[in-house]
Predict the 3D structure of the following.
Amino acid sequence: MQEALFNELTPNGIYNFYIFRDAVATDLFNQDNLLYLTQLTADESGTSSFNVTLPCALEDTVKLAIPAELIESETIDERIAGDANDDGEINLKDAVTIRRYIAGGWDVTINEANADVNGDGEVTLKDVVLIRRFIAGGWNVILL
């Protein structure tokens, strides 16, 4: 387990923290490169920290590279990545709804922003696979 501690942040500021396999990769947010993502609020003294356990195979090869970015409160994304049917949960109903949407002929509507979990701008079966892996757990899947 590794601890990441940040000081001198904006007090009560909201930050995104990332851990990348390669911090100078061309596509930082590729699912093979982005290992961890969390959003935290700095305390009143401007400090924030979190603990992360990386898969054993990566423990010795990954360098902890975490650029922090301050998020303005009015720009926080309220969407739930993976919740294609907007019921507030990520479950198999979302995967089925997306499959029906892709197949056509079904009277379904989806939240396309929530359904596009790999961030490629399209809703495809790749998104369905990622949602199913996320639900199953153990795949280290991050829904974007």
Observations:
- The chain has a mean pLDDT of 77.
- The beta strands are 2-6, 14-20, 34-41, 48-52, 68-71.
- Residues 2-72 form one domain.
- The chain has two domains: 2-72, 80-144.
